[in-house]
Amino acid sequence: MKSLSLLWLLKQAYFGTYPKTSIELHRKYGPVVRIAPNEYSIDDPTAAKIIYGSGRGFTKSPWYYASGNPISPLPNIFVEPNPHIHAQARRKVAAAYSMTNLVQLEPFIDKCSAVLRDRLEEFARSGTSLEISHWMQCYAFDVIGMMTVGKQFGFLDRGEDVQGIMSSLSQYLVYCANVGVFPEWHKTLFRQQMRSKTASGLTHVREFANSQLEDKREKAKTDGFSDPDVAEDFVTKFLRLQAQNPEKITNADISSMCITNIGAGSDTTSISLTSIIFNLIKYPRVLARLRAEIKEHESQGTVSDPMTFAEANKLPYLQAVIKEGLRMHPATGLSLGRVVPSDGATLVGQYFPAGTVVGINAWVAHANTKVFGHDAHVFRPERWLDYPELVKEREAYFMTFGQGSRTCLGKNISLMELSKAVPQIVRHFDFAPDTESGEPEYVTENVWFVKIRDFHCKVYSRHTQ
C-alpha cells in the first residue's frame, strides 16, 4: 500500500501517527522504507550527510510548498526550494539570529521568566492543577513577542489564547501536514479558505504579525529606532537597517521575518521545554543531579539568578539535559524530504534516480540504537557526556533543528530560551503529576509539530516547603 499510493502517507499525516509508525517500519524493514510511490524514508547517519550536506544539490521536496502563501509576493525562507534564492534571503537576516546578537536580548527573556515564575507561584499558593504545555507555550509566545517587536503579547498575563493565535497556528499546521502530501491542491484550497467566512490559520497569523509590525513602525516614527536603555528587538534592528539601506532591506523582508518569528518561534521551545519537565519528573535521578550541579555553582558564586546564557552554557549536565530532551521528543514529526539531484544518489548502498524524494525523520534518527545506544528509548543525559568519539557521532545524527544550510533559523533562540528557563524552573519549583497513577502522563498531537497535550501537574514552590 505504501509503495502504491499517497493515501497511506495522507492517513499518517491526518491521524498524527507518522513518528511512531516510522520507527516501527524501520525496525522491521531496515534503513530504507518506501512510504509513497516516489518517496523513501531513510535511517542512516552517512546518508544524512549526503542528503542535507551543503552543496550536495538536494532541494526541499514539494511537500513544503503547502507551508507558504501561494498568492503572496513575500519571500519565504522556510518554503523556498531554490538553494541560491534561499541563501540570498537567509544572508539578509542571518546576523540577527546569531548568538552574538541574541545574547543582547536576554533581558527580554528574563522579563518573561519573571512573569512565568509569578504565575507558577500563584498556582502553588492556590493548589490548582495546571496544564504544563499550555503555559510553556504562553511563555514561548511572550518571549518571541519581546524579541520580535519589543513587547509581550499577554499570554502569560491572561493565561489564554490571545486573539486565537495558538488555535490558528494549530489549524495552519494541520493544513500544512495534510495538503503537503498533495501540494498541487494547495493554491486552490488556499483560495477557497480565503473566500470562506473564517480565514485560514496562516492568514490569521499573518494579519496578527503584520498588525504588530505596523504598531512598531508607528512607534518608531515618534520615538525613533533605539533606546540606549533597552535592547534592540528584531523589528527595530531591521527598521534601522532599512533606513540606512532601503534597497538591501525591503518592507517585504521585514514583514516576512516578523511573520516567521511569530508563526514559528514558539512551538519548538514550548514543546521541548514541556518534554524536559516531563522527563525530569519521570527520572528523579536526573533532576537530583541537575539540581546538585546548579547548587554547586551557586555555592561557588559562578551563576546568578536568573542565570545568564553564558553561565548556563558552562554547566555541562544542564546542557546534556537540554540536548537529551530535544533528542527524546523532537519538535517536528515528519520526514525532512529532499529531492535527489540530476545525477542521482547512492544512499545506504541503494541507488535513487533524480527526482526521487528522500528524507530522514528526527524521531527515527533519534531512536537509532546503533548511534544512541541500546537504551535510546531512555532519558539519559549522560550519553552526551560520553567518550568524545561517541558524542561526535551522535551530534552528527542529531536532527531536531534539521541539518546543513537549511538548519532552523531560530535554533539559537530556542537553545538560549531553554538554557535560561530550565534552571529557573528547577531551582524554584517542584511538580507532581495530577493523574490517577501518580506518574506523569500526556498525549501527543502530531500536526507537523508533535505537540504535547493534557500534561497536568500541581506545582509547589521550593521556597515554602
From TrEMBL:
One of its GO terms (molecular function) is monooxygenase activity. Heme binds at residue 408. It holds the Pfam family p450. It comes from the Eukaryota. Keywords: Heme, Iron, Metal-binding, Monooxygenase, Oxidoreductase. Its cofactor is heme. The keyword NAD does not apply. The keyword Kinase does not apply. Belongs to the cytochrome P450 family. This is Cytochrome P450. It comes from Fusarium mexicanum.
